[in-house]
């Protein structure tokens, strides 16, 4: 398969593009993560979200430790080719490493960030004792 | 009002944070844009989306030319404080400068990006002759 679709993406100075993952069923925005060219190619090929972990500096097959895989339903690119939207099916119903449904659980209320979404599973339950 | 909530945000090396805008009614992800500290403060104060235009290097009150204002319903911060989600009411039903409902109108199909969403209003209709 030609890789010209990967050339169309405007990668930033670090070779990355921001990626929004939205749950197909609920419509909730789950997370914002980053991909490099290799991660986006793998995502399309494997039909599961593969991100670039900026902290660990390596490919991160979402769910590889937790089982919380994101199965791909749709891959979109924005008007100026520098942001990607994934429509996914979130396995296990948990996208966030904190054990919440999603990462956007802090809400601005009267000048304070308030945690408004519950932990579904503790990190220990998800990742086990190391 | 204290500005400690702005200090909580992990601004990147350019002093920016990526911001996802989602339509409250349809649940559609409209756009990914960027904010600096001043833009996020203005967004909260004015209850409309105010972004930082990286190309024009200035604050961009979304809709200032087009009328396509994004009224704020909810402001969220993610688990590691480096991405923001806005739930908005999109005035005029058009978020994208191309005159489409939203910016994510290119869909990956068999290794090609295909435009799958229509132009609702031409750019000329939106911005007029300059």
TrEMBL record, chains A, B:
GO molecular function: magnesium ion binding; phosphoribosyl-AMP cyclohydrolase activity; phosphoribosyl-ATP diphosphatase activity; zinc ion binding
Occurrences of domain Phosphoribosyl-AMP cyclohydrolase (ranges): 32-105
Free-text cofactor note: Binds 1 zinc ion per subunit.
GO biological process: L-histidine biosynthetic process
Residues at which Zn(2+) binds: 79, 96, 103
Enzyme Commission number(s) from the entry: 3.5.4.19
Co-factor requirement: Zn(2+); Mg(2+)
Pathway noted in the entry: Amino-acid biosynthesis; L-histidine biosynthesis; L-histidine from 5-phospho-alpha-D-ribose 1-diphosphate: step 2/9; Amino-acid biosynthesis; L-histidine biosynthesis; L-histidine from 5-phospho-alpha-D-ribose 1-diphosphate: step 3/9
Broad enzyme group: hydrolase
Cellular component aspect of the GO annotation: cytoplasm
UniProt keyword terms in alphabetical order: Amino-acid biosynthesis, Cytoplasm, Histidine biosynthesis, Hydrolase, Magnesium, Metal-binding, Zinc
Keyword Magnesium: yes
InterPro entries: PRA-CH, PRib_AMP_CycHydrolase_dom, PRib_AMP_CycHydrolase_sf
SUPFAM superfamilies cross-referenced by the UniProt entry: HisI-like
Reaction equations catalysed: 1-(5-phospho-beta-D-ribosyl)-5'-AMP + H2O = 1-(5-phospho-beta-D-ribosyl)-5-[(5-phospho-beta-D-ribosylamino)methylideneamino]imidazole-4-carboxamide; 1-(5-phospho-beta-D-ribosyl)-ATP + H2O = 1-(5-phospho-beta-D-ribosyl)-5'-AMP + diphosphate + H(+)
Binding site for Mg(2+): 78, 80, 82
Subcellular location: Cytoplasm
Stated family: In the N-terminal section; belongs to the PRA-CH family. Belongs to the PRA-CH family.
PANTHER family: HISTIDINE BIOSYNTHESIS BIFUNCTIONAL PROTEIN, HISTIDINE BIOSYNTHESIS BIFUNCTIONAL PROTEIN HIS7
Role of this protein: Catalyzes the hydrolysis of the adenine ring of phosphoribosyl-AMP.
Assembly notes: Homodimer.
NCBIfam families xref list: PRK00051.1
Name assigned to this protein: Phosphoribosyl-AMP cyclohydrolase
High-level lineage: Bacteria, Pseudomonadati, Pseudomonadota, Gammaproteobacteria, Acidiferrobacterales
């Amino acid at each position: 398969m030609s890789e010209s679709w990967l050339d169309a993406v405007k990668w930033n100075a670090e070779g990355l593009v921001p990626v929004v993952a939205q749950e197909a069923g609920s419509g909730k925005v789950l997370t914002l993560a980053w991909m490099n060219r290799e991660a986006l190619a793998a995502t399309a090929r494997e039909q599961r979200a593969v991100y670039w972990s900026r902290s660990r500096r390596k490919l991160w097959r979402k769910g590889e430790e937790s089982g919380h895989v994101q199965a791909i339903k749709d891959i979109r690119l924005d008007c100026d080719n520098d942001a990607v939207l994934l429509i996914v099916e979130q396995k296990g119903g948990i996208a966030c490493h904190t054990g919440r449904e999603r990462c956007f659980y802090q809400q601005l209320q009267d000048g304070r960030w308030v945690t408004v979404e519950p932990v579904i599973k503790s990190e220990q339950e998800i990742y086990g004792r190391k």
